[in-house]
Amino acid sequence: MRAVRGRAIVASVVLVAVVVAAGCGGSSGGSSGGSGGAAAGAAVNISSCKAVQGSGQYTITSDFPLQGSSSLQTKQMNQAIAMVLEQNNWKAGKYTVQFQPCDDSTAQLGSWDSATCSANANAYVQTSSVIGNIGTYNSGCAEIEVPVLNQAPGGAIAMVSPANTWPGLTQKTKVPGEPDKYYPTGTRNYARVVAADNFQGPALAQLAKDEGVKSVYILNDKQAYGAGVAYYFQEAAKALGITVLGNEAYNTKTGTNYQSQFQSIKAKNPDAIMIGGLICENGGQVIKDKVAVLGDNSKVKLLLPDGFTTDQTITDAGGAATGAFMSVAGVPPDQLTGAGATFVKDFEQKYSTDHLEPYTPYAAAAAAVMLNAIAQSDGTRASVTEHLLNQTIGNSVLGGFQINSSGDTNQGSMTIYTAKPGDKHISTYKVITPDPSLVITL
Question: Which of 14, 28, 44, 138 has the most crowded CB, counting CB atoms within 10 A?
Answer without folding.
Answer: 138
